[in-house]
Amino acid sequence: MPAAGPRSGAGSAAEPVLEVRGVTVSFGAVTALADVDLAVAAGETVAILGPSGGGKSTLLRAVAGLQPLDGGRVLWAGADLAGVPVHRRDFGLMFQDHALFTHRDVAANVAFGPRMQGATAKDRRARAAEMLELVGLGGFGPRSVATLSGGEAQRVALARALAPEPRLLMLDEPLGSLDRRRRDELAAELRRVLSEVGVTVLHVTHDHDEAFAVADRVAVMLAGRVARIGAPVEVWRDPRLSAVARFLGHANVVEVGPGGAVPWGRLEAGPGRAVVRSDAFRRLSPAEAGSGSARSLGAAGGSTVEAVVVDARFRGDRFELRVRTDPGGVELVVLDPELAPAGRRLAYAIDPAAVAAVD
What we know:
Blueprint: E1 16-27, E2 30-41, E3 45-49, H1 56-64, E4 71-76, E5 79-80, E6 91-95, H2 106-110, H3 112-116, H4 121-134, H5 150-162, E7 168-172, H6 180-197, E8 200-205, H7 208-214, E9 217-222, E10 225-230, H8 232-237, H9 242-247, E11 253-256, E12 261-262, E13 265-266, E14 272-276, E15 281-283, H10 286-289, E16 304-314, E17 319-325, E18 331-336, E19 345-350, E20 355-358
Parallel strand pairs: 3-8, 3-9, 6-7, 7-8
Antiparallel strand pairs: 1-2, 1-4, 4-5, 9-10, 11-14, 12-13, 14-20, 15-19, 16-17, 16-19, 17-18
């Protein structure tokens, strides 16, 4: 569940500084980007989130000038970048493999950009020290790159990308090579650093936890198109498309008939298709459920469902139960603070606030 909120001064309401208008890119018969539109405000971090092959990295390359466009335009502050070469765009890039120079020490890696800009040796040293302090690696300047851990190398790569003061920072799966614990730690650190610097950011990732932790807004890309864009909490709670819902991990997409009819009874939604978040379910006590059907207890907090547990998995602070409704035989995924063995019959109240129409 996303917890991050927008950084001060960032958001879609501000005047866009980066605009992608109708960008199309094809590789032979394969369309990688299909008429993509995107606007990013100054100082805003937008995560481009999607599965492999969805067009995320192609969009990043198109913005950077590394990928020719078959259609559309990329603009910065209203100016078309079509004739501007890569090295003149003043955009910074950071990749998953971080690509540090192994023959240079940490400080020389970070100072590389300012060196290419013609900064003096004194200014380069000062900038490198400043950036290393920013990413929590003060004093690491003389270290050999070969001595760094994976997380330290990613921090150095970030410091190097920020050192030339790019007007746009583009991150392509920057945390993808790290384990989950390190990724979570560095995602929080990355958000702090980007907020402190105030740079405009495009952050490509396939991991929605990472996107939610870092970004002000999330653009979900599926099959070369931006399928949903909004603040992390908005995208999570209201995915709008069943394909987006399933990509984000919402397993419960159901068909709703007239009057909220579903195979197990009634749902406060519809008619149409709806996603029921796995945290929508509150287990009813035996006293609440009574001896009859829990479907008669709609007043207990929205619609209700009776189901038999099929499988249970431990998910840290909760259990993920896969249940089969009775009646209806629909399999649902439920997050429950209590474990229940397979075969046990349970009743749940469904919070209508955790149900959203899709498609």
